[in-house]
Amino acid sequence: MASAAASISRSLRRSRRGGGGHHLLLLARGFVTAECHRPVVLHKRGSDILHDPWFNRGTGFSMTERDRLGLRGLLPPNVVSSQQQIDRFMLDMKRLQKYARDGPSDTYPLAKWRILNRLHDRNETMYYKVLIDNIEEHAPIVYTPTVGLVCQNYSGLFRRPRGMYFSAEDRGEMMSMVYNWPADQVDMIVVTDGSRILGLGDLGVHGIGIAIGKLDLYVAAAGINPQRVLPVMIDVGTNNEKLLKDPLYLGLQEHRLEGEEYVAVIDEFMEAVYARWPNVIVQFEDFQSKWAFRLLQRYRKTYRMFNDDVQGTAGVAIAGLLGAVRAQGRPMLDFPKQKIVVAGAGSAGIGVVNAASRTMARMLGNNEVAFESARSQFWIVDAHGLITEERTNIDPDARPFARRKSELGHQGLSEGASLIEVVKKVKPDVILGLSAVGGLFSKEVLEALKDSSSSRPAIFAMSNPTKNAECTPEEAFSILGEKIIFASGSPFNDVDLGDGKLGHSNQGNNMYLFPGIGLGTLLSGARVISDGMLQAAAERLASYMKDEEVHQGIVYPPISRIRDITKEVAAAVVKEAVAEDLAEGYRDMDARELSRLSEEETMDYVKQNMWTPVYPTIVYKKD
Ligand SMILES: NC(=O)C1=CN([C@@H]2O[C@H](COP(=O)(O)OP(=O)(O)OC[C@H]3O[C@@H](n4cnc5c(N)ncnc54)[C@H](O)[C@@H]3O)[C@@H](O)[C@H]2O)C=CC1
Ligand SMILES: CC(=O)C(=O)O
Ligand SMILES: [Mg+2]
C-alpha cells in the first residue's frame, strides 16, 4: 500500500515536471486511480454543498448524486454536462459583449439585477437593507419589468440555485424531497409552473424568477423573515417550442402534462409542503388561466393559499376603481353606477370582474337583483371581441359576465364586437386592460373614450411588463387631457403636461396587496384565506389614499410607502380573520387575545412582527 502511494506521488511529481508517461501507463492498466478521480469524502449534504465552491457543480450533479447528497429539488431538473455549463456561461458573456457594442439594450437593468443578485447570494441582511432603503429604484429591477427580462434570460443568468424545483420526474418523491430544504420553518411559499410569466407567456422552468421576485417583496414590504421564504417552481414541462429545442434550457424538455396527470403533480406538491410545514401560506403565481381558477377552487377551502393573479389583482383593481370614483368628487357608494370595459378575460381580467361586481352588489344590498345590476356594469372583450351569451364554447369562468342577448340590441352591439366599437357605444367610465397586448388601447380607442360619461375617465393599462401595457401615460394624457386617472401594471414616470402640471402615473399592481394578505394571514393564523379577508385588504388600500391625493389623480400610494401600506393591509386582514372566526393565533398571541386588540394595537402587533434587516448578535455553540 505504502509503496503504491509512493509510486503515485513519484508519478505525480514526474507529471508536474511533464514526465507523466509511466503514471498514465499505470492508469491505463487500471492499477491506480488518478488524483482527480479519487472519491472525495464529504461531511456535508444538501444546500451546504451548493454553497461550497470546492464541491459545487450546480446543474452538473447527476440524478443519483442528487439523491445520494440530498440535493433533489434544490436544482433545476435538467442535468447538464460540464461542456453545456461552459457554453451557457460563455453565451451569457457574449450577450453582454454584444449589448455593450450594439446598445441601446436591456443590459443596464440586467446588470443591476446581477449586482443585486450577487449581493443576495453573499449577504442577505445587506441585500434587503439596500432593497428596502432604495425600494423605488430597485423594485423595478427585482420585480416588474426587469424580472420578466431576467426570466427570459434565465439560463444565462443562472449562477446559484434559489428555491426548490419539483418536476414531473419527481412524482412519488416529493414527500421526502421537501426535507432537502434546509429551513425547519417556512412561512411563505410562492409557487409557479412557469406557464404564463407576466405577459410573456410560457417560460417554463425559467419562470422561477417571478417567485423569487415576489418573495423579495414579501421580505421588503411585509417584513417576512427571509430565512422563512421559499420560491418554488413546479416543472411539468413547457409548451414553448423555442425552449424545447434550446440545448441550454434548464428544465424538462417535454410538453406540459395535462389533465389528471398535471393535477396529481400539484396535489403531491401541496401534500408534501403542508406535511413538513403545516402552517405555511402558499401563493400561486402566474399559472395559465385554465389552471389558475381550477387550482384555486380545488385548494382554497383546505389550505392557507390564494392566487395572486386572480385575487390580489382583483383587490388592487377595486381599490383603484374606488379611487377613480372619489376622484370624480363622488362617494364610493356610487361605484355600482360605473360602466367598466375590461379587455382580457384571463385569470386577471375575470378575477377583477368577479370581485368588483361582488363589491358593487354588496353596496346595492347583496341580493339577486343587486348581483344582476352589478353584472350589467361590465363589458368584457377578449381576443375574439365582446363576450356575449351568443358565443359558442364560452369559457365557463367568463359565462356569468357574458352580455345578455336582450341587452345587445338596444346598445347596438353584437357578439365579438371590437374594443373600439364597445368603447364608442358604451361610453364607459373606465377601460381596464389585462390582455397582455401592448398598445391595445390605441389612439382610436383613446379618442373614443373622449365621449365617456365620466368627468374623469380612468384608464388602467395593467398588463406587464412595460411593453405589454395597453397604452403609455403619455398616450393617454396627450389624447384625453389632464383630467384622466391613469394606472399601469409596471412603473412609468409622471407626464409633464406643461404649465407646471403633472399627469400622475399610478402603478396599479398586486404588489400593494399580496404582501399584506400573506402577512395578515400568517399573524392571524387564519386557517384559510376568505373572500372577506381579501375584501378587507382591498378596502384598506382604497381608504389609505387621502381625498387631496385622489383629487390629484393619485389612486395608489408611491412604492416608497409600501411597507407602511402593507402593515395596514395586514392589520385589516387580521381583524377580518378574527371577525370571521378563522383566526387561530400566531406564536404567543392566541385567537382570544387577538380578538381583544383594538385597531391601533393590531397595527402595533403587525409592526412588531415585521422583520427588519439588522445584523443579529451571533453566539457560537458547540454541537
Ligand atoms: N397589474 C397587475 O397587478 C397584474 C397584471 N397582470 C397582467 O395581466 C395580463 C393578463 O394576465 P392573464 O389574465 O393571466 O393572462 P391570459 O393570457 O390568461 O389572458 C389574456 C386575455 O387577454 C385576451 N386578449 C388577447 N388579445 C386580446 C385583444 N386583442 N383584445 C382584447 N383581449 C385580448 C385573451 O383572450 C385572454 O382572455 C398579463 O400581462 C399580466 O402580466 C396579471 C396579474 C396582475
Ligand atoms: C403583477 C403580476 O402578478 C403579473 O403581471 O402577473
Ligand atoms: Mg402574476
Describe the structure in your own words.
The chain has four domains: 44 residues, no CATH class; 208 residues, Rossmann fold, CATH 3.40.50.10380; 200 residues, 3-Layer(aba) Sandwich (Rossmann fold), CATH 3.40.50.720; 96 residues, no CATH class. The N terminus is likely disordered. It has 623 residues and is of the alpha/beta class. The protein is globular and about 85 Å long. The strands form three sheets. The chain has a seven-stranded mixed β-sheet, with helices on both faces. Strands 1-3-2-4-5 form a five-stranded parallel β-sheet, sandwiched between helices. Strand 10, helix 22 and strand 11 form a beta-alpha-beta unit. It is built from 28 helices and 14 strands. Helix 7 packs across helix 12, helix 12 crosses helix 23 and helix 16 crosses helix 17. Helix content is 47%, strand content 9%. The site of pyruvic acid (PYR) has 9 residues, from helix 16. It comes from Oryza brachyantha.
Q: Could you outline the blueprint of secondary structure elements for this entry?
A:
Blueprint: H1 2-16, H2 21-28, H3 47-50, H4 63-68, H5 82-102, H6 107-122, H7 124-133, H8 135-142, H9 146-152, H10 154-157, E1 164-167, H11 174-177, E2 188-192, H12 208-222, E3 229-235, H13 241-245, H14 259-276, E4 281-284, H15 289-299, E5 305-307, H16 308-327, E6 340-343, H17 347-363, H18 368-375, E7 378-382, E8 385-386, H19 405-411, H20 419-426, E9 430-433, H21 443-448, E10 458-461, H22 473-480, E11 485-488, E12 495-498, E13 501-503, E14 505-507, H23 514-524, H24 531-544, H25 547-551, H26 562-579, H27 591-596, H28 599-608
Parallel strand pairs: 1-3, 2-3, 2-4, 4-5, 6-7, 6-9, 9-10, 10-11, 11-14
Antiparallel strand pairs: 7-8, 12-13
The structure holds 1,4-dihydronicotinamide adenine dinucleotide (NAI), pyruvic acid and magnesium ion.
Magnesium ion (MG) is lined by residues 285-286, 308-309.
Binding site for a divalent metal cation: 285-286, 309
Domain Malic enzyme N-terminal: 120-300
Binding site for (S)-malate: 196, 464, 509
